[in-house]
Amino acid sequence: MAITRTNASAATLTKNRTEGSVVPGSGMCVTCVDGCIGMCEIGKSAYRGHEVIYPQPFGVITTASEKNYPVDYSHFNIMGTAVGAQGIEADSDKAIFPAVNLDVKFGHDGGIKFRMPWIIPGIGSTNIAKNNWEGLAIGSALAGTGLTIGENVAGMDKDAVIKNGRVVDTVDLKRRVKLYKDHQRDGYGAIVVQANIEDTKLGVQEYAIEKLGAECVELKWGQGAKDIGGEVKITDLKMAQLLYERGYIVLPNPLDPDVIAAFEKGWFKEFERHSRVGMVSEEAFAKRVEELRKAGAKYIFLKTGAYRPVDLARAIIFASRYKLDLLTVDGAGGGTGMSPWRMMNEWGMPPVELHSLLYNYAKRLADEGRHLPAIAVASGFTFEDQIFKGLAMGAPFVKLVGMARAPVAAAMVGKTIGRTIEDGEVPVYVERFGSTRDEIFVTAAMLRSEIGHKEFESLPAGALGLYTYYERLAQGLRQLMAGSRKFALEYISRDDIAALTRESADVSGINYIMDVDQGKVEHLFMN
What is the domain extent for residue 246? Predict the structure, then answer.
């Protein structure tokens, strides 16, 4: 049964008065008392209104759905075997887990190469992204994985130079690209510049290609967190007015004299900046792909969200027809910014259902001999077991897993630990490992040796946090793959996971665990 806690959540800083006695359907307290100050979401909405739509406090949190879906990736188990090896000689001295190869290559010419099969898809103009970009960019580059600069970064840059409605110079976007490129090693990884409607009007991708040397660009139809465009909160009147003038939807109208007066009196403290929703058509899609190729884009990606099945079919067919290099499909439930809380819980196709349909559509195109881009799946992936399952669910078409909240969390923790080291106030929980970077971050010695003392000393602690988290994921994934006797990513198959319930088997097409290997078992007994 799918369950949502409907009237109180840490995400909206609300709670029920009768926490032990709540009406299941509405989430209201069983006894709603006249005189209550309104701690629940209904009550808080009575005095803060639309502010309660969004998770709080904005700018220092990432958020994800609390909904418990009927089927999720925990309803599948990874299958191991005691026999043989694929991708390496079946020799116990050679088929060891450190020998598992996690490299992945994709793109029309195979020219994009990652050391690990994941990418951060679309971290954009939110404070949580901007304030942790050093860690995210440098950590991703050092690890040799991908990072996507999300929507609205140039438009939100107060120092960006815009002439005749087009971006001609930036501070933030330039910084974001440079931080990544300056720390790339041996050509591994990729920095991707994404664009929504406003970015496209401003010519952000053309600017990034021409002035910043961007090779990878991404068209954005949406994400799994919400069914509307991106949004942020603005606490500065002049910034709100600037964004309004740049063509964004800003609520309330920051040019209205009455609104200005109310803001200056402190009657409200935040404006909302919203992006428009896209209006996809094949003609416009084809035109934009051609424009980007003419502008010099080497690789073109598409990211789509948890829309209805026909939109998923549209995305993969367009990506096939117009020879895109990567399609990212993001299931419902996640978010890195301030997606509307109830929308995040109640909108869209859940991950297993969406990714199962994705496999079916990809297989249909492949069986017809049509072009398929590399595919990435996203939606709440955090650890190596989930990464393995995501790759297996969509094998052989899925090449990458998209993760955002977990890498952001790792970068934030690394940054926080770095600050406590500098202040000489390392928390007891961490201090048991030491009081310096080299003692606390387990990858420090290896990384210092690889990149040199000088560069290591200049690394932000957030980058160390992300790099170390990625190192854990890589080793864990190698162990799982070795247990399944798959020593390179290309050998992972749908048969490497089993469904634990009949429902999860029906949804996914993955074998129910009691039906796995039936034919092989009978063959053994017959012989």
Answer: 231-274
Question: Which tokens is 35 given?
Answer: 């005189």
Domain's final residue, options 274, 291, 308: 274
> Which conformational region is residue 59 in: left (phi greater than 0), alpha (psi within -120 to 50 degrees), or beta?
left
| 167/267 same-domain check | no
3-state SS assignment for residue 77: strand
Q: Does 10 share its domain with 109?
A: no
CA pair distance 66, 68, nearest whole angstrom: 6
522 C-beta neighbours (distance < 10 Å), count: 10
Structural domain tally of the chain?
A: 3
**Which DSSP helix (H) or strand (E) runs through 192?**
strand 190-195
Q: How far apart are CA 39 and CA 453, in angstroms?
A: 53
Q: What is the pTM of this model?
A: 0.95
196 and 338 co-located in one domain: yes
Q: Other C-beta atoms within 10 Å of 19: how many?
A: 10
* Helix residue ranges per DSSP H, 394-509: 405-423, 428-431, 437-440, 444-451, 453-458, 461-483, 502-508
CATH number of the domain that residue 322 is part of = 3.20.20.70
The per-residue pLDDT of the chain, averaged, comes to: 95
With both helix axes pointing from N to C terminus, report the angle between 461-483 and 133-143 in degrees, rounded to the nearest 10.
Answer: 40
Tokens of 339: 């997606």
Report the SS3 class of residue 483. Answer: helix
Q: Are residues 465 and 352 in the same domain?
A: yes
Q: Do 135 and 187 lie in a common domain? A: yes
For residue 310, with 0-12 CB atoms within 10 Å meaning exposed, 13-18 middle and 19 or more buried, which class applies? exposed
User: CA 247, 249, 255, 257: dihedral to nearest 10 degrees?
Assistant: 170
| Amino acid occupying residue 187 | G
Residues 335 and 221 both lie in one domain: yes
The pair of structure tokens assigned to 78 is 């990874």
Residues 403 and 266 in one domain: no
Would you say 144 and 424 are in contact if contact means Cβ atoms under 8 Å apart?
A: no
How many angstroms separate the CA atoms of 325 and 320, rounded?
A: 9
Contact indicator for 217, 209 with CB cutoff of 8 Å: yes
The answer to whether residues 153 and 288 belong to one domain is yes
pLDDT digits (tens, 9 = 90+) for 14-39: 999 998 899 988 999 999 999 999 99
Buried b (16+ CB within 10 A) or exposed e, 454-475: eebeebbbbbbbbbbbbbebbe
> What pLDDT score does 1 carry?
52
Residues 26, 29, 33, CA angle at the centre, nearest 5°? 125
User: Which of 274, 309, 342 is the endpoint of a domain?
Assistant: 274
Number of Cβ within 10 Å of residue 311's Cβ equals 16
Per the CB < 8 A criterion, the answer to whether 426 and 435 are in contact is yes
Q: 99-156: per-residue pLDDT in tens?
A: 999 999 999 999 999 999 999 998 888 888 889 999 999 999 999 999 999 999 999 9
